[in-house]
Amino acid sequence: MKLNILLVVLLVSSSFVGVVAADDGPLWDDVEKATTVYYDQTVCEQYQPYLSLDHVEVSPDGLYCAVYESPDHDTDVIAYWARYPVQFGYTNADSHVGDREPIYVHVDDQTGEIDKVVYSAYHYYAGETSSPQMAEVNGSDYPSLYVFEPHHHYAPRTFTTGELVDVKPFVSNSNLDASSSQDWVSNGWDVNHDAIVDPWSISAGDNWWPDDSYDGRLSAVYWGTMQTVYDVTGYDIGGKLGSLF
Known about the structure:
Layout: H1 2-13, E1 36-38, H2 41-47, E2 50-52, E3 62-69, E4 75-87, E5 96-108, E6 114-122, E7 125-129, E8 134-137, E9 140-147, E10 154-156, E11 167-169, H3 180-186, H4 193-197, H5 214-233
Parallel strand pairs: 2-9, 3-11
Antiparallel strand pairs: 1-3, 3-4, 4-5, 5-6, 6-7, 8-9, 9-10
């Protein structure tokens, strides 16, 4: 059955022709003047997600982090991007070198308590939870997220074996334009810039794809097809529905 479902997805996606080039221009030019973006190792490690990875073929080589503060919002956002060297998908269409999956932890700027966690629930489409599962590790609590193969999206779940991935800077405190994030964009990272410079703009049902991008439209086909397949057959291909709860 799984092969038949994949054929449906591929047949539908074959209607897309042409590829919209990724925006490789300056990433941080559009950040709001009131927003402060920086890297803080201590803060990033304090709120980092605890990831279930023992079943994942390729582990992330880092959890790239930035802290966002703004007087226009009641929360600070600690944004994480798990970077995988490669993604081995179901087909060539969803296999590629380099994969980056977001987790945005919103923290009350007065109490320091976690307000909600927004995460990639499937192919850059966002899910969120205001009551994240928490894992206690060495006396500290961390949001607990299960990683799905092969696309590395997440679901808030509890599990017995997880990992605190090494935290690395997503931004440079001395020069945002010299950040890892800008390097990724300059090398073709297909991502919505607004979703990076304004993490408060992303909530459940939104996505991290650029407007009119080929990958975004293809992901929408996967997203809709998975829902239809589940509604008709009860078969949850790719863990898409499981990642929403």
